């Protein structure tokens, strides 16, 4: 059986270090992030990511998947820590924490790690500020069979607790890259790829537009949308019906409606 | 010129009462809610909703829309309060508050207020727990020309700060009703209406399914989905491609992808 370390004090340095992972600055320095729940940790394992540390609640119910995960993490040289539900709540910042959490090393998010031939659809987000939106876009990417998400300019942190939670595990299955616009565009143009965005500028109806794989679907900042220069660099600009008073959709919603349209078009 | 009351103390009872509106229990007792920003307040006015109280920051810039709003609220007998940016931040719970906020009386959310002949699409959410999702669904409803949102069973509060914010003003333009399932179903069946849900049970592909107006599109709870009984009561069950590891979408995303599909179908 794998050896477990027990932690019972709130002031234990491991507890402090884990809590600090909720803070972006600290997380960036440590290059580690936290994921909660057996389901997400199992998804991560299935996608080839094992946590460096597994934190278990004393109050957990036994589960074969949990036992398997524990054994694998132990075999890989990871650390296994057992603690009280109260301390786990403190670590995850949730009143009713899941019975298990894991600490992962951040992945490489260099653009060069993206193999565009691997998938027909790629999502691109520019200056996306809300980590919930970011996680939701990852989740949608998984659903439409996208290869991953490319984050342009200053976006929310994909490894924040909120983004990981909203991604429902897709943070482990989708490739993630971070780049400035002036790195992204030359990279895109160095290979095959159609850049698409929702726009009002010289745009055609989003339904039945001539999408082509690999299709890079780009959404902009929640309040400002995409800069004009970025829109003009697109190969295809599409427009969606807006029947009400508002003139825009939530960024994650726009990505999903367009993403499903592109999927249907490419599937034909 | 309309008379303004100045408030400069954090412990002023009005400040305390306004801050308390962020708390659901208090909000329900007062039957009042808070909205921030000139854009949303102008949308509200255009949709026929004037605030009972307007709270202005001393640091606001002059704006013709703001002046018009102030005059209208004053003429309607509403109260106008001027305060410091710090106090406004305290009231709205935001570090960088907008320069204006308004207090509205909650609307009637009885099912009988819904006139189904008014729109071809209606959104229905069951046990939706996240106020951000709720607001986003309202916003999507506005975009697809839905009549409103019917909240079934125990949902998040549509008048919470988070839901109002995420709705981007649609809380004022969409009808909102709250009902138990055993009130909703008889009400629905007493008139024309097709009940549609995403499902894996005996479902057909969501694209090109025989949607018919008035179409009631129902989404379920974020983690449990819809109860089986509710799914079985639907006239049409549709399924969406899920190409990845996950077996579901974010609730607001699912509502949007299906909502836009229904809009396209009904428009043909």
Walk me through what this model shows.
Chain A is of the alpha/beta class and 268 residues long. The first copy, chain A, has 2 domains: 101 residues, 60s Ribosomal Protein L30, Chain: A, CATH 3.30.1330.30; 157 residues, 3-Layer(aba) Sandwich (Alpha/beta knot). Helices cover 37% and strands 21% of the residues of chain A. Chain A contains 11 helices and 12 strands. In chain A, the strands form 2 sheets. A 7-stranded parallel sheet of chain A has the order 8-7-6-11-9-12-10, sandwiched between helices. A 5-stranded mixed sheet of chain A has the order 1-4-3-5-2, sandwiched between helices. In chain A, α1 runs parallel beside α5. The radius of gyration of chain A is 20 Å and the shape is elongated. The model of chain A has no long low-confidence stretch (mean pLDDT 94). The interface between A and B is large, with 36 and 36 residues.
Question: What are the SSEs and their pairings?
Answer:
2 copies of one chain form a homodimer.
Chain A: E1 5-7, H1 13-20, H2 24-30, E2 32-36, H3 38-46, E3 53-57, H4 64-75, E4 79-83, H5 85-92, E5 100-105, E6 121-126, H6 131-143, E7 148-152, H7 161-167, H8 170-173, E8 175-179, H9 181-189, E9 194-198, E10 204-205, E11 215-219, H10 228-232, E12 236-239, H11 251-267
Parallel strand pairs in A: 1-4, 3-4, 6-7, 6-11, 7-8, 9-11, 9-12, 10-12
Antiparallel strand pairs in A: 2-5, 3-5
Helix pairs in contact in A: 1-5, 6-7, 6-11
